[in-house]
Amino acid sequence: MAQLNPRQREAVHYIDGPCLVLAGAGSGKTSVITRKIAYLIEECGMAARHIAAVTFTNKAAREMKERVTSLVKGPASKGLTVSTFHNLGLNIIRREHKTLGYKSNFSIFDAEDARALLKELMMKEGDFNTDHLDMVQNQISNWKNDLTTPDAAISKANSSGEEMMALVYKRYNQALKAYNAVDFDDLILAPVQLFIDHPDVLERWQKKIRYLLVDEYQDTNSSQYLLVKQLVGGRGGLTVVGDDDQSIYAWRGARPENMSLLKKDYPSLNLIKLEQNYRSTSRILKTANHLIAHNPHEFDKALWSEMGMGEPLRLIRCANEEAEAERVATEIFLQRQRRQIKFSDFAILYRGNHQARLLEMKLQQHQIPYKLSGGQSFFGRTEIKDIMAYLRLIMNTDDDNAFLRVINTPRRQIGTGTLESLSRYATEREVSLFDATQEMGIQSHIPKKNLERIQRFAHWIGQVRDNGENDPIGAVREMIEDIDYEGWLHQNASSPKVAEGRMGNVWFLVDSIKWIIERFEEDGEEASLEAAVAKLLLRDMLERQEEEEEMDQVQMLTLHASKGLEYPHVFLVGMEEDLLPHRTSIEEDNVEEERRLAYVGITRAKRTLTMTLAGKRKMYGEIMETTPSRFIDELPEEDLEREGFGDHCPDLNQSRGEETLDNILSMFDDL
Ligand code: ATP
Ligand code: MG
What we know:
The protein contains 27 helices and 18 strands.
């Protein structure tokens, strides 16, 4: 196991008060957190159940938990909480749902559910267009992250437009409550509000969580900041680590100034800086330092490394985006052979998901296995969404979205007329669609046969729910067979093979539920289907990536998703104006956040970094000449090996590129 350096050791051993580790990329901040957890358990004798560590993504949480279990042997780490902020919030809501006014089976609305609900509310107001919908959804999220209540938003509104949004916000919250549901932002907001209103509940939680550790602190938003402050109270059992230069979520409400706020809130704060980087070669590090020096700095940092000079960084300019993708694929193919390394040693990082399409195609052409993070995820698949909707409805019959998704999947001959009557009835009496099926009698305008069908469905849902109490997994399996979901898949799939693949996913989902329930049992927690489904829903929302992670695949991910991770060989593509920095950020004069994003990208690399750009690129439907990113001029020229700049460039590939490029792109446009 690696020895800690003196500064790291100080951070790990300091438990007399709150502690902030402020340090650049790869300096061992995350390592300090895992080692400190081990120290608290093994040296300070603190029970693991009193320690909570919070990270930014599920992937990071999983990795952290693994690292701790490898450090702390045996059962001593049992009961430790390592989770994302949202997961921690979910646990608090689950335990305190009564005080919060939710039933135990509350649903979690993901962005898509929330959007559907908002759309419905806005249509009622007679104001609906997609742009507006996005704006309102964003604004509500901002309000929630800043702890602004609907009433406060209404009274602060300066224009009729703002007032309208604030009103929608109010109705939206009311609707969520009626559905017995919380949205993603509520997972943090509800606990914070609960702790404000009920100091006794807060005290209970403070007794439970005696030591709190937070990774990637620079990306916390206001409500997360407050949640940390509440849980820590006046006791100072807090270690946070972060890097202001890696703050890349301001657009989602993150507030890097939370770092400096800490000093005000905790005057006794022990500030520790780490300066040795253990990840990258000196050249990579120097390049990153050069770039980030162009941003203003509140805290000065100077990173150095003993990993050797390393190879020069490469900057390759290709004729167009097809040539760029081709080049990246062939480089990976050749370097893997030359260096005798694995595909999984490579990562391709890009600014926007749309950049992945051509790369994917080229990797496929060269038969290079790859893993795309953030693409079509397991939980994004139709079959999984269908079954999850059944489970959601079974757990919470007030969940109208789930009701609508499953009512005709598979077909039950319930027509739109019937559904409209049902929906009208439900709206008038302010009950859920499910309850409406039970209440609605012959006097409704629904033909008797249809009414019977719909009531049979509702009755059956109730039965599955009852069965689930004794034998959760058996009930889920039986449910899937009852509806003949497999038959339905076969009717709808293009081939039997496709249908079988989809059915395989469904059984995988059932197995996952089984594993979760077994885990709950082991940890002595409530082992119900309800709890397992809540856990799955959250996992679905947070980690729409992963799977097949250990396989030998090139990793493809956005710069945002790459935070905290490291790879031996990194390709950073699209080093062009309008891409990195992104056009919107240029227009909004927010290039500093883009520079931090580039900094995050560069510092993921351990041994080599290759940056690429295309001379021409199809943007906004037109092939355009590009301009190299301004960030290129901010890198140390002496450490760069340029290729493809100037008149003479051997690999420009002009002749084949252009006409095929258009063909290929138009092919994608059709998808
Ligand atoms: P980032 O800012 O990107 O999140 P970080 O500061 O969290 O980076 P870590 O991921 O903790 O850095 O560490 C970077 C690498 O350095 C890891 O591979 C880690 O194992 C290694 N490392 C950390 N501390 C030491 C040490 N004292 N000796 C040797 N290796 C170390
Ligand atoms: Mg880290």
